[in-house]
Amino acid sequence: MAEINPWGVTDIKDYTRLFDDFGISRFTDMLNQIEKPHLYMRRGIIVGHRGYEDVLRAMIERSPFAVMSGFMPSGKIHLGGKMVMDEIIWHQRMGGDAFACIADMESHSVRGVPWRDCKDIGLNEYIVSLVALGFDVEKGHIYFQSENKRLRDLAFELGTAVNFSEISAIYGFQGDVNIAHMISVLVQNADILQPQLHEYDGPKPAVIPVGVDQDPHIRLTRDIASRMRMFLVEKRLHTDQKPYISIRAKKADSGALEEIARRIDGQKKVYELHMDLFEIEESEIDSAMRKIEEIVRDVEIEYGGYGFFLPAATYHRFVQGLNGGKMSSSVPESYIALTESPEEAAEKVKRAKTGGRVTVEEQQKLGGSPEECTIYELLMAHLIEDDAQVKEIFEECKRGERLCKACKAQAAELMFSFLKRHQEERENAKEVLMKHELYKQWFR
Ligand code: SF4
Questions:
Q1: I want to staple 307 with a disulfide (CB 3.0 to 4.6 A). Which of 27, 49, 203, 416 is the partner?
Q2: Distance from the CA of 12 to the center of ligand 1, in angstroms?
Q3: Residue 428's domain is classified under what CATH number?
Q4: In DSSP terms, which residues pair with 77 in a beta bridge?
Q5: Do 206 and 154 lie in a common domain?
Q6: 406 to each of 146, 175, 351, 401, 425, how far by Cα in Å?
């Protein structure tokens, strides 16, 4: 089985195994339901999802949903981080309540980054670029984990639903892992569930755009969200194969179950700790489930519960390093930072590994391998908006009509312009943040 671990070595070449081994769903299966999909969706950069159906339904029905993701401030913001930012911003524009977290508690406990550097990197690398890329600070929420008491209280509470062995098994923690690192896992679980607290208008579908290596966090948080629920609502089958709905109290007092029974019409049997609902037409079972879940959630909140939806996630694939290997923050040649000089970045692009042949003649005769080319990846994922143009580059390369030198020059020029514009936008972003009631304190 392929292993995925947020802090371990990640080199997952065979994405199809992810679907089989981990139950991640293919994103392409829902693409045609999205009105104007982001280019990461259209171009297969977002490879999979977990539970995105609820978010999509909310988007279509224009009902509340949230988007959240986090950034660990331990190095420069590079194109990998930009992908997460783009996804948050896209969902915000689609109507989502957007949350961006600076995971300084994680950075401090896992990487040993001093608090002062966490603040500096978090603000000047990540937050400024996020706003420059289009995050709406008036509608969304940006926070540092360490400054967020509500988040830390929630993390503590979530800790009641997970034990040491479980966390150790998921993350491969040994006895020498510091306790703060373990706590930072709970804080990240809390990051993911925070948009559903009543301070943010209560439970709602929420999507977490992340790299596929973050799936263990998502799975754990979904488990915890489910364990924090007072009730479990399930669709079941009778022996005669007729469907019915069962509501089981997991940790609620019986008054709550009675209250649910009072609010639900139709034929039902109420027991001490559960209730079964019958005579629901098979064609109506899904909409009945949604209505019942809503009632159960309302009662749960009235009785002091959280009523969490299981958080959803979209998973994008890994971005190759410019030198062909893994992108690594300790190897500056492997990545482009959004804050580096456009001139230097353009030079890096010109030195990047391509999928071209050894000689021009061979390239013209046999064609190149854009699917293995970091230049093509830059053009496709970051630099060209027009799908037809990207397709043409791919085909020209395959036919040997495109040569790497000119192709690199084009990518270098586009990268130069993108970074120049982005860095101008960063200056505007700083002004926006400095004028903002909540965020101006970070600049003092
Ligand atoms: S022509 Fe462009 S896309 Fe094709 S291999 Fe060379 S650099 Fe890559």
A1: 203
A2: 23
A3: 1.10.240.10
A4: none
A5: yes
A6: 48, 54, 13, 11, 29
CB 67 within 8 A of CB 85: no
Position 324 in a domain? no
Cα-to-centroid distance, 351 and ligand 1 (Å): 13
* CATH code of the domain covering residue 113: 3.40.50.620
For the entire predicted model, the pTM comes to 0.92
Answer yes or no: do 358 and 413 share one domain: yes
By alpha-carbon position, which residue is closest to atom 6 of ligand 1? Answer: 404
DSSP character for 337?
A: B
Ligand 1 atom 4 nearest Cα: 397
Rounded to 5 degrees, what angle do the CA atoms 68, 74, 79 make? 65
Residue 152's pLDDT is 96
Q: Are residues 184 and 240 in the same domain?
A: no
Domain identity same for 86 and 146:
yes
Q: Are residues 262 and 353 in the same domain?
A: no
Q: Are residues 384 and 269 in the same domain?
A: no
Secondary structure E strands in 180-229: 206-211
CA 402 to each of CA 349, 376, 382, 410: distance values in angstroms, whole numbers, following the listed order: 17, 11, 20, 11
Is the same domain home to 290 and 383?
A: no
Q: How high is the pLDDT of residue 72? A: 95
Residue range(s) defining the domain that contains residue 358 = 332-443
pLDDT digits (tens, 9 = 90+) for 399-417: 999 999 999 999 999 999 9
Q: Which helix (H) or strand (E) element contains residue 270?
A: strand 268-270
Measured CA to CA, the distance from residue 312 to residue 225 in angstroms comes to 11
Give the residue from 285, 316, 347 where a domain finishes: 316
- Co-location of 125 and 205 in the same domain: yes
Question: What CA dihedral angle connects 52, 53, 54 and 59, to 10 degrees?
Answer: 90
Residue 161 counted as domain residue: yes
* pLDDT over threshold 90, residue 99: yes
pLDDT band at 14 (very low <50, low <70, confident <90, very high): low
Q: Give me Rg for the CA atoms of the chain.
A: 24
Mutate to test the pocket of ligand 1, among 376, 378, 393, 415 (most ligand atoms within 8 A of CB): 376
Instruction: Tell me how many domains the chain contains.
Output: 3
Atom number of ligand 1 nearest to Cα 356? 5
Question: Which of ligand 1's atoms lies nearest the C-alpha of 403?
Answer: 1
Give me ligand 1 centre to Cα 332, in Å.
22
Task: Pull the structure tokens for residue 93.
Answer: 């524009």
Q: Is residue 62 part of a domain?
A: yes
Task: State the burial class of residue 283 (Cβ atoms within 10 Å of its Cβ: 0-12, 13-18, 19+).
Answer: exposed
In a domain, 321, yes or no: no
* Contact residues of ligand 1, CB 6 A cut-off: 354-356, 368, 370, 373, 375-376, 397, 402-404, 407-408
